[in-house]
Description:
By secondary structure, the protein is of the alpha+beta class. Helices cover about 20% and strands about 30% of the residues. It folds into four domains: about 35-135, SH3 type barrels; about 140-230, SH3 type barrels, CATH 2.30.30; about 240-330, no CATH class; about 340-495, no CATH class. The strands form eight sheets. Strands 1, 2, 5, 6, 7 and 8 form a six-stranded antiparallel beta sheet that branches. Strands 20, 21, 24, 25, 26 and 27 form a six-stranded mixed beta sheet that branches. Strands 9-11-12-13 form a four-stranded antiparallel beta sheet. A hairpin with a 5-residue loop joins β11 (about 195-200) and β12 (about 205-215). α7 (about 380-390) packs across α8. This is Surface layer protein SlpB.
Amino acid sequence: MNIKKTILISAASLGMLAGIAAVNSDNASAKTYAKVTSNKTLTTDATTRNVTFNGSNALYNKAGTLKGARKVATTTTLNNLVNSNSSKKNFRAYRVATTNRGSVYYKIVAFDKSYRGWIYGGKTVGNFSGGINQYETFKNGTLTDIQRNGTYKIANVGTANNDKTVTYKQPSWTQYKVGRQITDSTPYKDATFKIDQVGTRTRENDTWVHITATDSKNSAANGWILASGLTDAEAPIPNDSVQIRFVTNTGTEIKVANYQVPGASKNTQLGNGTVLPEQHIKGIESLAATTLAGTGYQLNSDGKLTPAQQTDLSKAATGGTINVTVTPESSNQAFSNITLNTSSTAAPGGIVDTEAGEAPIDKNAFGYSDNGTSVIANNLPTLKSNALSNIKGDSGQKVSESAIKNALSDQGLTDFYVVYQNGVVFRQFVTDSGLKIPAFDGQYEIWHYTYKDVTGDLTVGSTNVNVNYSVQKKKVPLGKWIQPASGTNSWKNVFASIS
């Protein structure tokens, strides 16, 4: 045996083994873990410890840098929870731990307990950062006059835990482990309440109100409830009145008022089931205008009852209730222009429909119309401009024909007269109120316009809105005074006196 060679091989082997041992030693110490130096229950105000995620850290079963830590929820999952529209996915921090590396971890839990675990929270205890931020689960609002002044009942009493049957100590799921104020509202079916607080849940964006009983014996029910779970506390409806609930198209009540029918007994129907008498139409429209003043709502775009509403009201009876839908008021002018089709090439004689175009307006003709004991007199472009400013609507809405007609009527443009001077030299519409006795037969013609209908596209912003008329023309005989005033000398009477 070559002893020298053997010794060299052995030495080499020993060196190799020593190297392997060194490598193994490095691997054993390469993965080092943090250690918890403190783990405490949080004792600060619980409502300040509601949190949400910012997507930078996952949720673990223990601090993420501890040995054996595993993910409970990935950052993707947590981002999805951030966008949840359910308050059940709100989170509360309830423990805090620090490690020997100076890192802070918070233990958090979903309000519905579907997730629980630890998440990195920065470097300072009590300052939520890292993967979480403080979160406002509920936002306080301001009471409207209607809410502040109204008196309410729970609409549907019972035991359902559906946010609008019973009351809650806090709006549902906005605080951890804070639940119902009462579990059965049946004993409070006749109780009335006032609203003293209002707000919205951040995730659902629904409106909650805090109610307080008007009678202290019912104060056990004081608490939070969805606004939609309440109804107006109705006073007994008089036998001679119909209670009208003015509501939005989604059923939200705006105002309630009683429409009285003097001398009527209970169950007296307002109409015949099809037609609502004119006095009731005017009376209810007047009641609506008074009741809805300042609410931001009105009867349709023109403040008038629609034919369908008139039919429904004709079936209503005293001692009962009926809903009438209202719409938001608009401050926007619906149309930049409309065409008053006042052109006519017909000879004096009978009543005919007008043609397309605005011949009198092109000449700034004066329009005259009787208005009680006075006369509306102004050039037609001015009258039309005034009417346009009173036709309101918002983008995408349809304006009713009645809204347009009412705006025209206010300016005398549904029944008016213009004067045409048919002189030897000048043939034109009279452009001021300086009328006089004709110098010869037929020097003047009076044209009488009466509203027929509106055609075209009545969508707000349309440029295709046409007002159509019927017209009758008469020649003014020699010696006839054609500047009427009012009363027996009104335009209507003077025109009728001309054969």
